[in-house]
Amino acid sequence: MNQSPWDQLPVRRRIAQRLCQAISSEVWVVDDVSFPKCGTASVGVARQCCGAVGERADYQVAVNVRAATDAASCPLDWHVHLPREWTDNPDR
Predict the structure, then answer these.
(1) What is the pTM of this model?
(2) Per-residue model confidence as pLDDT tens digits over 63-88
């Protein structure tokens, strides 16, 4: 979706509407997911702590909102978190 010529917002909205209806969500969950990376070429990669692993390393972090029940969950929205060293660096 990140390289598509069309606006992704309407698609994300439609996915969220259909999935929320399908699972009859009871709660929304805000969570982060860390992806270990080698090097810093991927957007948002920085040396940071991963709670699940409990150590500092090069990670890319995505923040997401999910609709959930006790039996299922589905993504509603998601974004890559940009650490300060990315947002404060005009060359990035």
Answers:
(1) 0.73
(2) 999 999 998 888 888 899 999 989 99
Q: How far is CA 39 from CA 14, 36, 43, 60, in A?
A: 35, 10, 11, 11
> Exposed e or buried b for every residue in 56-78, given b needs 16+ CB within 10 A?
eebbbbeeeebbbeeeebbbbee
Q: Determine the 3-state secondary structure of 15 from DSSP.
A: helix
Which residue type is seen at 76? L
Residue 81 CB neighbour total at 10 angstroms:
16
SS3 of residue 12 by DSSP: helix
User: What are the residue ranges in the chain where pLDDT is below 50?
Assistant: none
Which residues, including other chains, have CB under 8 Å from residue 14's CB and lie 6 or more apart? none
